[in-house]
Amino acid sequence: MLDIAPYLIAPGAAADLDGRDPGSKQGFGGGKVEGKAALRPLNVTLDDLQTRLWAESSQRLLVVLQAMDTGGKDGTIRSVFKGVNPQGVRVWGFGVPTPDELAHDYLWRVHKLTPENGAITIFNRSHYEDVLVVRVKGLVPEERWRKRYDHIARFEELLDDEGTTIVKLFLHISRDEQRERLQARLDEPDKRWKFSMGDLETRAEWDGYMAAYEEAISRTTTEHAPWYVVPADRKWYRNLVVSSILVETLQRMNPQYPDADPELDGVVVE
Ligand code: AMP
Ligand code: MG
């Protein structure tokens, strides 16, 4: 397992996205081949921990995944959860709000999809869009979205108080890497479905998004709902970091199989 400490943003600290290298593979000796090999035992450990969490059925884990377009949210889910029993793992994507969603406060659509006992829920985008795209595109006035940092911190505190462990991951890619990945989506027919013209508009606002991420992460990283900034230009390294974070988080949760019922000792099935 990797040392994930360098990627944790401590409460009160700045995310310092500018000072972090998205291409880092910090101290990992090998390259892609070794990196992929190192992921396999982590997949097995994650599967074991998820089975225990499901069997125990009294704690829950929420994983918030945020990234710029092509940042690797989908690929991370696919690779990190390989071999994990899909039962008990939920993935929810948050896109442009529907009219019904817009007719409510911004946490309404989010709260009802948080995990139940025993479950791991992954948010592919999340309530953070309401201080990211909403801020950059000016979808609501600043005096309204500014208050949301505090709402979000308190909302996450409520989830934690009621038994939900939260871990938040920003997959940090460079602007150059995004250009290559977007171009690949245009050039390779099988990838075109992932491309939308809006991605270019979003890319044009890169600096605005980085400023929005910087503030969102810095203001909402807490003891109970920490942010990690994951170097994500190398997919294999990104997977290793994310898997290590999830394994460490679940090991801390320490889920246990329920006590075996002693009355069942010696029962023989005819
Ligand atoms: P994708 O992840 O490629 O399916 O794209 C989803 C799109 O929905 C992204 O462009 C997000 O910025 C957008 N989106 C998600 N949440 C919100 C929100 N609360 N308000 C406006 N746009 C959003
Ligand atoms: Mg997209």
Please describe the biggest sheet, giving its number of strands, its sense, and whether it closes into a barrel.
6 strands, mixed
Mean pLDDT: 97
Named once each, the bound ligands are: adenosine monophosphate, magnesium ion
**In total, how many beta strands?**
6
What is the strand content?
5-15%
Helix content: 40-55%
- Radius of gyration, whole Å: 20 Å
Query: Looking across the biggest beta sheet, what order are the strands in?
Result: 1-6-5-2-4-3
Question: How far is the first residue's CA from the last residue's CA?
Answer: 45 Å
Order of secondary-structure elements: EHEHEHHEHHHEHHHEH
* pLDDT < 50 runs, ≥5 residues: none
List the helices and strands and how they pair.
Layout: E1 8-9, H1 32-56, E2 60-67, H2 73-80, E3 89-93, H3 99-102, H4 108-111, E4 120-124, H5 133-136, H6 142-145, H7 148-161, E5 164-172, H8 175-187, H9 198-204, H10 206-220, E6 227-231, H11 235-253
Parallel strand pairs: 2-4, 2-5, 3-4, 5-6
Antiparallel strand pairs: 1-6
Bound molecules: adenosine monophosphate and magnesium ion.
